[in-house]
User: What shape does this take?
Amino acid sequence: MSANASKLHSLTLHEASELLGRREVSSLELTQAILARIDSVEDRVKAYITPTPELALEQARLADGRRGAALSALSGVPAAIKDVICTQDVRTTCGSRMLEAFIPPYDAYVMEKLKGHGMVMIGKTNMDEFAMGSSGENSAFYPTRNPWDLDRVPGGSSSGSAAAVAADECFYALGTDTGGSIRQPAALCGVVGLKPTYGRVSRFGLVAFASSLDQIGPITKDVRDCALALQQICGHDPRDSTSAPVEVPDFSAALGPDLKGLRLGAPREYFHEAMAPGVREAVDGAIRRLEALGAEVDREVSLPSTPYALAVYYILAPSEASANLARYDGVKYGYSYTDGDSMWDNMEKTRQFGFGDEVKRRIMLGTYALSAGYYDAYYLKALKVRTLIRCEFEEAFTRYDALITPVSPTVAFRLGEKVSDPLQMYLSDVFTIPVNIAGLPAISVPCGFSEGLPVGLQVIGKPFDESTILRVAYAYEQSSEWHKRRPPL
Amino acid sequence: MPINPEEVRHVARLARVGLSDEDVSRFQGQLSQILDYFQVLHDLETDGVPPTSHPLPLHNVMRTDSEDASLPRDAVLGNAPQQEAGLFRVSTILEE
Assistant: This one.
């Protein structure tokens, strides 16, 4: 091993990829470095549900054997995959007892793509059960801890993916985002996370939570890595009828040093009094920096339906979940209770013992919102307000190239602080949810620290304009030093 | 409270989720608090606003009606809690 082997884990994806390209390091060395890092920090961070070291070493040897062939920037660079994405022959639990022993017979579209690019999978990451949660504490196995402060949550639901990237336990990760589940943990862990436009990335093989909101996206150490990882998971897939048949631009080509001529809006409704002062200070500082980089920032823009987004989301997402999770009946796969006195008794007990509290709460909320007598008042009403929210964004995007907001109203909170108060927990998604409701792309990029904990800046883009949000995030990031700080593990 | 214990039991029954008595009282409080929060939507005028069920302007995505490869039966049954003769085994649905 080279003299720098002990530091290999701290490289970014693009740095690791460049070393591989110059043959200064092998995929096997990178993989061994990550496995050694996992050995030294994972018992504190708990980012993984199922590490796959043997598979990773095998894939690394394969990638080394293929060197010289025209492969992508991701070839041979170890990655972590959220445990809600189906991986053939590797168990996929969704953070749930229900799927504790589930081994998918096929790969998700994103896994097919990554494997085609010579991926090395280090493991499946921890998460809130069925991606329902904002802290990682709803994992049926154990909570993931924030690498910046082990007594605090990493955010959720992609808790393990964000923590694994922040703790250098992989070079990049995939997460999923239904209401903020990539961006909020990325912000709380001080890394970069991007939720693509709805339809940009195929959901084939993604275990469904809320089908009109779910998207898969990358979590990375910096914005260049984010563009590289996003590049390889996009594309049209006929197996997902909502996969959009659109061109995929070269995302890295959008990255540049300045923002001259760009018009940005910072909507007033996202800067309300519930935001922690330290978060406001960091985001305000970032806005001034964006102006210094040449962007014009309008702080008077208003999206008046924003305060209704949280209620809309917590009607729509549970409604869709209540239908999607009906498949867990103990017959085809998953946990199955069989000692009951009837078929119905078995089914009810399968779901009673297989699901955790948050999943049950959301299934019941959704069932209630869709039930006779309440459908118009809740579900239909929420769909109408969804239209208002979507149209306000559309209108704003006739005047602005992108919108700037905080990602989360607070920095990472303490483990246990919000577990018994679901509504307080839901409020931590208040700035990320409107983006899913409108199907827009958005990125979280580190923009400072408050109380020693990372703060994230959210850049929201027009549909299928991931290039502009990457451009804004990259120019900001390169003008700052935040992304170079690492947690003291 | 917007939802009483009987309604919690009714919704749980519709969703086929078994609950203990302790679950019912905890969920009653939590669901009531959340349903109360949803009342903010009723202040908003939405007459004549069309519903959005989906953020993309895609409709009726069609494919050719042709045969395609499917997963082998063994792979599909591989995760079945109970199977018999190449089929999923379920408990009795109809009474004798």
In short: The helical segments of chain B are 5-14, 21-38, 73-77. The beta strands of chain B are 83-84, 87-88. The radius of gyration of chain B is 23 Å. Chain B has a mean pLDDT of 91.
